[in-house]
Structures are given as structure tokens and as C-alpha cells.
Amino acid sequence: MRKNGSRLISLRQYRLTDSVIFALILAAFDLIAYGALSMFGAGAYFTFTMTLPITLLIMMRWGWQSVFYAVADGLILSFLYNRTVWQSYLSYAAGGAALMLILILFKLIGKQRIRDKWYLTAAAVLAGWLVMNTTVTVIQTVCGADFLNVASYNFGVGLTGLMSLAAGLVVILVMRRLDGMFEDQKHYLIRLDKERKEKMRRDEFGDEPIEIDREFISILNKKDNGLY
Fold it and tell me: What residues have CB less than 8 Å from 142, skipping those under 6 apart?
């Protein structure tokens, strides 16, 4: 494939470049959010993460590779916010891994249908948020935390709480409006190739190619012969 009209690159190179860019975006946001939160003191917990939308973007674009983003980001968040609490590492990593259950949703409904219908896109984000936070809550409860406390934190104003859900919805609903962003990349590249070939065909033969059947051609030939 040709990237940005420059040189030919392989699908593997394209996927690697794409993956690195999103990984850097996710890591940069974690650091910026943590730095901004630190400015307001330790008691300010009104924050959010980009784990959910970035993971779902990669999941839509490339599939199961998104599990590495979710798990790694869970470990990064634990290091930044609860670096001495081993239960945090376990629960957030498990919560990220649980997002892979959304792949079943993609398989049953279909990636293109989820992408094309805004309410299915929103439902996928909500399902991912519920799966991730339910897993985190269960793991933390099993590790000895009070269920009501962790549930109210995780589903309320916590790190992956309601603000993270709102941010995820906004990001994904905006991304689906941008051509090729929230789309399976193999499907996207095939679609681009078809559109390119169609444009070449139209440029060569005109915007509206006309088919003329044999009967009409024979009539034209008879009238043409009568002119001489």
C-alpha cells in the first residue's frame, strides 16, 4: 500500500506505525492528566482516563492487539496513582484485559454495523465501561476492599468512573465521523482501493458511463447507413 502518496509500505509497517502513535497518545494523556490532577491536590479525584476510547479505537482498527494497550495502561495508571498498592495493579490490569469481551460484541453485531449506527457505537462504549469497571470492582472486593466503597468509586467519580465514560463517548462518537478512524483498517484500505479504481474509471470514461444495447446499436447503424 502507499502511505500519504509517498512510498510503498507494507501492512505490517502501517499497523506498527499506527500502534505506536496511539500508544504515545495514550501515555501522553496519562501523564498530562496526572500532572493536572496533582496541581489541585491529593483530594481532587474528578479526573478521567483515555483507556476506554483508545482501546476501543485499536480494537475496531486492528482487533485483539488492543488488549496490550488496556493492560499496559492499567499498570501505568496504577503506578501513577497507587504505586504501592499491589491490588491496584492486579485489578486495573484485569479490567483492561476484560475489555476483550467487547470483541464478542463486534463479532456478533459486526464492526461495520457498529460503526455505521451511532447508537450501536455508544452501546459498545457503555458495554466496555461496564465490563472494565465491573471487573475492577470484583477484583478489588476479592482482595479485601469494601464492595460499596470501591463500587461507588469505580462507577462514580473515580479514575475510570462517569467522567471516563463521558470522555469515551465523546471521543468515539467524534472519531466515527472522521473517515477511516473508527473503522477496521483492512476494510478501510480495501474501500480506499475500490474508490481509487472507481475514480480512475470515471476520469477515463466520464462521470456517467452509458450502456447501449445491441438493438439500439443496430438502429443507429441503419440510420447511419441511410445518410450516405
Answer: none
